Amino acid sequence: xxxxxxxxxxxxxxxxxxxxxxxxxxxxxxxxxxxxxxxxxxxxxxxxxxxxxxxxxxxxxxxxxxxxxxxxxxxxxxxxxxxxxxxxxxxxxxxxxxxxxxxxxxxxxxxxxxxxxxxxxxxxxxxxxxxxxxxxxxxxxxxxxxxxxxxxxxxxxxxxxxxxxxxxxxxxxxxxxxxxxxxxxxxxxxxxxxxxxxxxxxxxxxxxxxxxxxxxxxxxxxxxxxxxxx
Length: 230
Hints:
- The chain is α/β, with parallel strands linked by helices.
- It is 44% helix and 11% strand.
- It contains nine helices and eight strands.
- A six-stranded parallel beta sheet has the order 5-4-1-6-7-8, sandwiched between helices.
- α5 links the parallel β4 and β5 (132-133).
- α1 (26-39) crosses α2 (44-53) and α3 runs parallel beside α5 (114-123).
- It is globular and about 55 Å long.
């Protein structure tokens, strides 16, 4: 399946989510939230569950007797420290894929903050894009379409010429409601609403490049023929 067809005579753009799509940060997120929860005497699993489905986190749901600004400041300190000291891993194929895309034709759309994304990218040797639409860039986060529409606007792209790469339901909904093609990666089962599903970023990479380059990926036999005759 595909989304609304991109016009072949126009440039195409790729918009990536970050956590869970390009960088595996699940253990880091759990560790940060567990540390934060212990500081306030809260159940870490419950706090993490609420954090995953809420942006920004409604601290009243987990710490109603605490000052939300104090809670947020403590969380930011922990997250910034994790960027400096935590161990991060880029998903297989991420670095090669990003380096193969034209720098002006891809961007990041994240619910995190740009300075943390840049720090994680440096630590995983991923190329930092020219454009990062982060939590500070929009008033409404995913699943609202606003973040992806903002990225398209800044790139000078029409929504139908954009491919969104996501791993989470809120991001998939955001991209779909923005009128973009949405592919899911790094999940065993397709997230509801994706136009295509890939079990890994590595599996999706040649198709992502083909979208950006306006051509269909070569079949295995065609690749073998090219190798023999090249």
